Amino acid sequence: MITKQTTIINKTGLHARPASDLVLMAKQFESKVTIRNIEKNGEAVNAKSIICLLAEGMGQGTKVEIVTEGPDEQQAAEKLVTMIESGFGEKNSK
pLDDT tens digits, residue range 48-58? Predict the structure, then answer.
């Protein structure tokens, strides 16, 4: 199991397009992938479900924890954290 923490930097937060991108990336991996809003001290949700991600309402500055567990957990964790830290390629990030 790999656990990594990062912060959502894009100004509009984890809205529909970046959430969809995150789900598509997470689904590329065999490992179980969850994301948790650290600030709300909430429960981890399935990062392969757009409904779960959008329901969390994670805005800019939200600190999140990504947990991956499975045969490709290291690669999954690294790719997902890199995607979040890139601001999902949005020009209005940071």
Answer: 999 999 999 99
Active site residue 89: no
Q: CA 25, 28, 31, 32 torsion: positive or negative?
A: positive
Q: Could you tell me how far CA 86 lies from the centroid of its own chain?
A: 12
From the list 4, 11, 15, 79, the catalytic residue is: 15
Residues 1-11 as b or e (16 or more Cβ within 10 Å = b): ebeeebebbbe
Sequence ranges of the domains in the chain: 2-89
* The pLDDT of residue 93 is above 70: no
Q: What CATH code would you report for 2-89?
A: 3.30.1340.10
58 phi/psi in degrees, rounded to 5: -85, 110
